Amino acid sequence: MLNWRRDPGVEQREIQYEQREIQYEQREIQHELRMKQLESEIEQSKERTKQIESETEQLRQENARLAAIESRLARFEQEHLSGSNPLSSTGDSSPS
Length: 96
Fold this sequence. Notes:
The chain is mainly alpha-helical. It has one helix at about 10-80.
């Protein structure tokens, strides 16, 4: 049996092992960086979702206000423009 100190492959295997350890550590670092990046993207998505929800609610409120204005305008037009006292063609609004 050969003594490990005389085995020429021991040093080579140790170097390969160390290289694999370094590669593993690099992959771990890359994984951690990717996870942080994904967490940041998730947080940005959540913030954007909140912003969109807020904008959507503002638009709903604005649409409700516009619908109310349109309804009042329609009632006004119906009451005043198509009322029972049409305006005469001479512009005289006094009764005859």
